[in-house]
Amino acid sequence: MPDGVAVSRQFVRVTQKGNCVVDWGRNIYQDIYTGEKIDLDENEFTYIVKDSELMMLKQYGIIKDFDQHSVFVYPMNDIYGF
């Protein structure tokens, strides 16, 4: 099993602007590149990240790995402030 924090692929999304984000639900998104919380406009759509995009993210060291079901990300900032 790869190292990193496993996130279900359905929650790794790409925005209209090309940001790769984790969708934590309740309109909370976290940028995979920076680890920062980002706000999306109501009309901004997202789609589930594609294999080709994941390969590029892995090649550039943004994610650790991925498989058919999960994306293994590096630990990110705590965006909830607990």
Report what the structure shows:
The structure is a single chain. This protein has one helix at 51-59; strands at residues 5-8, 12-15, 20-25, 28-31, 37-38, 46-48, 63-66, 70-73. With 82 residues, the protein is mainly beta. It has one domain (5-73). The longest helix is centred in the C-terminal third of the chain and has 9 residues, at 51-59. The mean pLDDT is 88.
Brief summary of the model shown:
This protein is mainly beta and about 80 residues long. It has one helix at about 50-60, and strands at about 5-10, 10-15, 20-25, 30, 35-40, 45-50, 65, 70-75.
Arithmetic mean pLDDT: 88
State the helical fraction: 10-25%
Distance between the termini: 29 Å
Task: Supply the number of structural domains.
Answer: 1
Task: Provide the β-strand percentage band.
Answer: 35-45%
How many runs of DSSP E, i.e. beta strands? 8
- The helix/strand class is mainly beta
Can you list the strand order of the major beta sheet? Answer: 5-4-3-2-6
How is the biggest beta sheet arranged? Answer: 5 strands, antiparallel
Rg over CA atoms = 12 Å
Order of helices and strands: EEEEEEHEE
**What is the tally of helical segments?**
1
Shape field:
globular
Topology (elements, then pairings):
Elements: E1 5-8, E2 12-15, E3 20-25, E4 28-31, E5 37-38, E6 46-48, H1 51-59, E7 63-66, E8 70-73
Antiparallel strand pairs: 1-8, 2-3, 2-6, 3-4, 4-5, 7-8
Q: What tags apply to this protein structure?
A:
82 residues, mainly beta, five-stranded antiparallel sheet, three-stranded antiparallel sheet, 1 helix, 8 strands, globular
